[in-house]
């Protein structure tokens, strides 16, 4: 029996884990965002959370029916709405390290948006 009264379970890990002190990390989590504007060089988004200026993030965008993952650097971020229990932030992200293939996909999408009005 364990200290909480639960029956012991057999160890299933291949490698033993060891406790550590002072080791920090981070995790990338994809959260929904509203894309309000798009250009060849970046996007403007609205989210319920803020971004740190100059931080770089991976963005999943669905351009028409084509999903892409791009990197964006935060150029600005500010509060646009305050509600009783939430806030809304508007953030500009500049595309960085954009491969030519993805730049072409974005350019095609932007031209279609421009043409369709």
Structural descriptors:
mainly beta, Thrombin, subunit H, elongated, 117 residues
Q: Topology, pairings included?
A:
Blueprint: E1 34-39, E2 42-47, E3 56-63, E4 66-82, E5 87-96, H1 100-116
Antiparallel strand pairs: 1-2, 2-5, 3-4, 4-5
Compact overview of the structure:
With 117 residues, the protein is mostly beta strands.
Can you give a write-up of this model?
The protein is built from 1 helix and 5 strands. The mean pLDDT is 90. It is elongated. By secondary structure, it is mainly beta. Strands 1-2-5-4-3 form a 5-stranded antiparallel beta sheet, covered by helices on one side. The protein has a domain at 41-116: Beta Barrel (Thrombin, subunit H).
Strand order, sheet with most strands: 1-2-5-4-3
Shape summary: elongated
Number of strands: 5
Total of DSSP H or I helical runs spanning 4+ residues: 1
Residues in β-strands, percent: 35-45%
The N- to C-terminal Cα distance equals 67 Å
Helix content: 10-25%
CATH fold type of one domain: Thrombin, subunit H
Structural class: mainly beta
Any low-confidence stretches, pLDDT <50, length ≥5?
Answer: none
